[in-house]
Amino acid sequence: MKTIKTGTGLKRIEDQDPEFISLQLRVILQEHRTNLIDALLRSGLDRYIDYKFNRKVSGTLLDQLKARLVAIKNGGISMMRYQPLLDSVMKYDFVQLTNTLFFEEIDMKLKERLAQKELFHFPIQESQAA
Predict the structure, then answer these.
(1) What is the Cα–Cα distance from 102 to 40, expressed in whole angstroms?
(2) How does pLDDT run along the chain (130 residues), one tens digit per residue?
(3) Are strands 94-96 and 9-13 parallel, antiparallel or unpaired?
(4) 77: closest CA among 110, 32, 38?
(5) Which partner from 14, 36, 85, 126 sits 20 to 30 angstroms from 42, CA to CA?
């Protein structure tokens, strides 16, 4: 029996079959990522983006970023991305989930959209505004 400590408590994984371990872990990772994203959305994504990326966002862009997070939340877990966690679970009987890999995924998706906004942002020059 393997034990995974998450933000919501201890989760148990049957460890007879390595494939079954991966499937059970995927469910735990999905739940953990969902909880992190829900907390971000509840606590104010705009504040997180200001803190993390030193950017102020609102309106349409904020709605688009929220939609990206909802898409991540509802999407599947890539075990390639979370391979280090799977390796730890295979090796140890007790593993505590950290948020590092989850926030790397979240931040990457947010950065992609923020970079698109910068790429296509053409400020109006004074001579054009008149």
Answers:
(1) 12
(2) 999 999 889 999 998 888 899 999 999 999 999 999 999 999 999 999 999 999 998 889 999 999 999 999 999 999 899 999 999 999 999 999 999 999 999 999 999 988 876 555 544 344 444 4
(3) unpaired
(4) 32
(5) 85
Sequence-separated (6 or more) residues with CB below 8 Å from residue 62: 45, 46, 49
**Could you give the CA distance from residue 83 to residue 78 in angstroms, rounded to a whole number?**
9
Q: Which of 24, 41, 40, 30 is nearest to 8 (CA)?
A: 30
The amino acid present at 35, given as its one-letter code, is: N
- For the chain, the first-to-last Cα distance in angstroms comes to 71
pTM: 0.83
